[in-house]
Amino acid sequence: MQKSSARPLAVGLIVLGALIRVTQHWNFAPVGAMSLFAGARMRGWKAYALPIALMAITDPLLGGYSAATPLVYLSFLFSVWIGTRLRQTESPLAIGAGALAGSVQFFLITNFAWLSASNMYPHTLQGVIQCYAAGVPFFGRTLASDLVYSGVLFGLHAVLSRTVARGERVAAQTA
């Protein structure tokens, strides 16, 4: 039996994440977790389109775009792809590993974007090291927010798909 591609519970949780994004101002955003969750619980092109559309809608509310924006968006698309590897699981360990992978690739890509789009650091090996070292404190918040919000999104989905939206329940894996 083929499951419906309509995923109202998943969409609703992603929209909730977008609302949280525009109401917080302490660099503890759910965008990485939303992207991971979209890849895991949405199907096809919608998994990639929804987080990017929500970013495009909320970015102007939060200060607009920069020269690094295309690479930031690309990073979120990578997080969606990582999430597609979690479609058949509710394992906290697998989801945590996915959130960690998403945080690391976001750190690497967005710091490279910052380095290449600005003149704040010299475009030398020393500049690369300085740029990434300056980004380490931000990585801690990125990792924490990705882990916390992934836990919230995947956890809410697991509970609600068993009680309210049974059609979105993740099939149990067989060993």
List the helices and strands and how they pair.
Layout: H1 8-23, H2 31-41, H3 45-58, H4 69-84, H5 92-117, H6 125-163
Task: Name the beta content range.
Answer: under 5%
> What is the number of E strands?
0
- Rg on CA atoms, Å: 17 Å
- What's the order of the H and E elements? HHHHHH
Low-confidence runs: none
The CATH topology label is Arp2/3 complex 21 kDa subunit ARPC3
CATH class: Mainly Alpha
Q: Please report the number of helical segments.
A: 6
Structural class by helix and strand composition: mainly alpha
Largest sheet: none
Helix coverage percent: 55-70%
Short structural summary:
By secondary structure, the protein is mostly helical. Helices cover 70% and strands 0% of the residues.
Can you offer a commentary on this structure?
This protein has 175 residues and is an all-alpha fold. The protein has a single domain (8-168), classed as Arp2/3 complex 21 kDa subunit ARPC3. The chain has helices at 8-23, 31-41, 45-58, 69-84, 92-117, 125-163. Helix 4 runs antiparallel to helix 5 (92-117) and helix 5 (92-117) runs antiparallel to helix 6 (125-163).
Q: What characteristics describe this protein?
A:
mainly alpha; Arp2/3 complex 21 kDa subunit ARPC3; 175 residues; elongated; single chain
